[in-house]
Specification:
Layout (H helix, E strand, L loop, with lengths): L7 E2 L4 E6 L2 E6 L1 H7 L2 E5 L6 E2 L4 E7 L3 E5 L4 E6 L9 H4 L8 E5 L11 H8 L2
Antiparallel strand pairs: 1-2, 2-3, 3-9, 4-6, 5-8, 6-7, 8-9
Length: 126
């Protein structure tokens, strides 16, 4: 299973990609694999301010419902609306086309609070 080295990961299977003043947040290939066939993605409203641990996205599959949590305090500035029509993109391309939200953090993230790719790989046994 692939976990890109340029990303950071959470214990709850989100990934984070930093780009200038934004964080792109998605779910890992491991999480998608655990969910199975994804049939629906419920995205939040743009402009919503969130706190760490707050549910921001709900992913429904044929097997279960998964929740995606905000990794930091910030404001959601974009959502991947294409997932409404093609939720299977999460399985096909989770790290690029399958991103979920983009947010502007209220403060620079403490990167030591997140896992690097190798640590995440070990944690999930991949």
């Amino acid at each position: 299973m692939d976990f890109p080295n340029d990303l950071r990961y959470t214990d709850t299977h989100e990934y984070l990609r930093a780009t200038s003043d934004r964080l792109t947040v998605g779910v890992t290939a491991f999480a998608v694999d655990q969910l199975g066939d994804i049939v629906f993605v419920e995205l939040p409203a743009v402009g919503r301010t969130v706190a760490p641990g707050e549910v921001v996205v709900t992913i429904e599959s044929v097997k279960a419902v998964g929740e995606v949590y905000a990794p930091v305090v910030g404001t959601i500035v974009a959502v991947n609306e294409a997932l409404g029509d093609t939720p299977e993109t999460l399985a096909d391309d989770p790290y690029t086309a399958g991103w979920l939200i983009q947010m502007v953090p209220a403060a620079p993230p403490d990167w030591s609070a997140f896992l690097d790719a190798e640590t995440y790989r070990q944690q999930v046994g991949a």
